Amino acid sequence: MPTDHPLRSDDGLVFGGDYNPEQWPESVWLEDVRLMREAHVNRVTIGVFSWSSIEPREGQYEFGWLDRILDLMAENGIGVVLATPTASPPPWFSLAHPEALPVTADGVRLIHGSRDTYNPAAPAYRAAARRLTSAMAERYSFHPALRMWHLHNEYGTVSYGPQTDTAFREWLRAKYGDLWELNTTWNTAFWSQGYGEWEEIFAPQATQYLPNPSHLLDFKRFSADLLRDCLREQAEIVRSVRPEVPVTTNFMLPSWNHYDQWDFAAEIDDVSVDHYPDTPGIEGDVQVAFGSDLARSFNGGRPWVLMEQATTMVYDYAQGRILARDPGKLLFNTLQYLARGATGSLFFQWRSPRAGAEFFHSPMVPHAGENSRTFREIVELGTTLANLHELAPPPAAGHGVNQNRVAIVWDATAWWSTDTRALPSNDTAFLPAVKSVHRALWLLGINTDFVQLDQDLSGYNLVLVPSKLAASNAEAEVLRRFVANGGHTAIWYFSGSTDENLNVRQGSFTGAFADLLGIRVEEHFPQLEATALKLSDGSTADCWAEAVELRGAISISNFTEFPLAGRPAVTKHGVGMGTAHYLATRLGEDALRTHLRRILNDAGVSPEHPAAGYGIEAVRRYAGNDSYLFLLNHSEETVDVGIHGHDLLTDSALHGETTLGPGAALIVREPWAEQ
Ligand code: GAL
Predict the structure, then answer these.
(1) What mean pLDDT value characterizes the chain?
(2) Dihedral, 509, 515, 518, 523 alpha carbons, nearest 10
(3) 309-313, 612-616, 631-635: which has the minimum mean pLDDT?
(4) 259: helix, strand or coil
(5) Which residue in 50, 45, 51 sits closest to 18, CA to CA?
(6) Is 3.40.50.1580 the CATH number for 14-161+212-390?
(7) Tell me, what's the pLDDT at 315?
(8) What is the 3-state secondary structure (H, E, C) of 440-472?
(9) Is the C or the N end of the chain the one with fewer CB within 10 Å?
């Protein structure tokens, strides 16, 4: 990981966005540069989706415009993140290679007209993407404006059809070796699915009723590996020309699960993410913290790139509306990203497109032009970030950009394993479970990382497992060792009930973790949505209950109603020097926080600042040898916080009680850093 890379120039924090000069006459480019300079823009991402402008006919390149814009950026001191435009093959490609068009799970072959219209398994697509990547790498690797390669855009295309079937079969052969192994692992004797030849196996397209969950899970793994291979081959090409140029690809967080983020992170130099909170108010702020913590964790605790956020609007096609951000909120949210390790902020996109898809998406320069609230806020944000340049250096060796004591388990298999229709309840889904635990900790003022269970966990006091249906023996052993060595854990219902191939563990649900937890789970009692469960400590729960038998653990609270009255709902087991807590139900919001407080207490974890929690966010960020305490007030109340140091936002010394109004923030260089 090249943290002291020559191309990691001392531009300070990065600021800018996706820039599509190919959509505008060159006269507008000069205006763009003027406005970029006014806003302190020092980074633009060029090339995303520009395939038809760069290669308008197969093998015929039009690099003139790209040469001119890169030169213009270099002349104006604006660094370029250069994207390979391979997420959007042009119309000529789909006519020349119809077999490379994507096929949906329902068997519909799509045609161009939007973006991402290709099958990643199609040899013609892969060859075209490689050719274009090579041509760009040869031409631009030594361009003075180049700061980073941005490979593709938001990998995530999943396709079915004959070319996918062929590649899937090869992947399965490599995984299983012989059909007996596959038939056994998928238990194909159920519903007469026994495979006698590899050619009988298809990618899991639409079928009559429930598909085989193990088959589905392997297809998700295959698709993820396929996308990783697409990324890998582009990375190899650009690195073969100039290895020291950092490479990234932008992850869509947190909703994109078409690949394994940890695997992707291992292929690139820096993780970058696109992040679009979709809820106003404090819940949107919770999402900012969540996305940032994922991004930093995927990047190994190092500073990460916020490749895209939106300016004034919270953009949500799903709900059919675009909401404005309140005045000042853009700066406030950006400080949150910074606190949690962002290297600055880039946006989608610099200028609103005149027409075309996303023509009302929020930009840095809106349709209304520079005389607008949006652009004024952009100038304010750019000026603020320019003044915060001392946050830019990576933390001194041995430090993460933040140093947290609590981690939440996040892994692709855990997510995919609950993406199946045949589970006892929909309330077992991965993402809502993980989000709710992260949110509860955020409200308690506790900052978290994410980990997977093949990592060194020794830096953490507490590792939480909100949802991990599929767990391997090796993963269970990592957690057991962590606890035996003095770590603490809490594991939520249904986790560990299957192995990594969705084979249900026999003898006890939650079987992978049953010994560690000192329990046996005999039967599930999924609940109807409206049912509230009362527990013996006065708290409430819902969604799920289980028949838990204590096998060494103690019960902290019990179910109180028929048929589980007196049976444990929340348990604790001492193992070695640590503790393992189990939650056999979904605790209500208050009860969850109360119980997390107990667990945090056992684990000896407290917030970064005594004022933190319930809307006051306190995060310590390290840069060079210095540390900076970010304090952000998300609440409606004015609070007094005790603080010593130098506030970078107001450039003033703070000694003792300071007032922090609603929506206000401090970034305090801590006193020991000044000596
Ligand atoms: C991102 C994508 C951008 C743009 C944006 C809109 O996911 O990378 O190209 O579509 O969403 O929110």
Answers:
(1) 95
(2) 10
(3) 309-313
(4) coil
(5) 45
(6) no
(7) 66
(8) HHHHCCCCEEEECCCCCCCCCCEEEECCCCECC
(9) C
Percent of the chain residues past pLDDT 90, beyond the cut: 92
Helix (H, G, I), strand (E, B) or coil at 287: helix
Class of domain 616-674: mainly beta
Name the closest-CA residue to atom 4, ligand 1: 348
Mutate to test the pocket of ligand 1, among 307, 316, 348, 360 (most ligand atoms within 8 A of CB): 348
On the question of pLDDT at 6 being above 80, the answer is no
Give the dihedral sign, CA 170/174/175/180.
Answer: positive
Q: How many C-beta neighbours within 10 Å does residue 202 have? A: 16
Name the fold adopted by 406-603: Rossmann fold (3.40.50)
Q: Global pTM?
A: 0.97
pLDDT category at 398 given cuts 50, 70, 90 is confident
Distances (CA, A) of 157 to 67, 93, 160, 260, 275: 30, 17, 10, 13, 18
Ligand 1, atom 1, lies closest to the CA of 274
CA–centroid distance, residue 262 to ligand 1 (Å): 22
Q: What count of other Cβ atoms lies within 10 Å of the Cβ of residue 481?
A: 15
- Among 175-184, 236-245, 353-362, the minimum mean pLDDT is found in 353-362
Catalytic residue, from 55, 308, 377, 617: name it.
308
Q: What is the pLDDT of residue 24?
A: 97
Residue 307 alpha carbon, nearest atom of ligand 1 = 8
Question: So what's the pLDDT on residue 4?
Answer: 42
Distance 355 CA to ligand 1 centre (A): 16
**pLDDT on residue 10:** 67
User: Pocket of ligand 1, candidates 275, 308, 312, 316: which has the most ligand atoms within 8 Å of its Cβ, to mutate?
Assistant: 308
The catalytic position among 154, 475, 500, 546 is 154
The answer to whether residues 304 and 355 touch, using CB atoms and an 8 Å cutoff, is: no
Ligand 1, atom 9, lies closest to the CA of 348
How far, in Å, from the CA of 343 to the mean position of ligand 1?
20
pLDDT at position 553 over 90 = yes
Residues with CB under 6 A from ligand 1: 153-154, 252, 274, 276, 308, 315, 348, 358, 361
Cα 420 to middle of ligand 1, angstroms? 27
Would residue 308 show up in a list of annotated catalytic residues for this protein?
yes
Q: What is the mean pLDDT of residues 501-518?
A: 97
Domain edges within the chain: 14-161+212-390, 163-200, 406-603, 616-674
Mean pLDDT confidence for 286-310: 97
Q: Which atom of ligand 1 is nearest to the CA of 48?
A: 9
d(CA 347, CA 18): 6
Mean pLDDT of 298-312: 95
Half-sphere exposure of 385 (CA within 13 A, CB side): 33
For this structure, is 197 an active site residue? no
User: Which of 526, 517, 571 is CA-nearest to residue 545?
Assistant: 526
The model's confidence at residue 5, banded by pLDDT at 50, 70 and 90, is very low
Label residue 175 by pLDDT band (50, 70, 90).
Answer: very high
Q: 348 CA to middle of ligand 1, Å? A: 7
Tell me, in angstroms, the distance from the centre of ligand 1 to residue 310's CA. 9
**String of DSSP letters for 296-349:** HHHTTTS-BEEEE--SSEEEETTTTEEEEPPTTHHHHHHHHHHHTTBSEEEES-
Using the atom order of ligand 1, give the atom closest to the CA of residue 154: 8
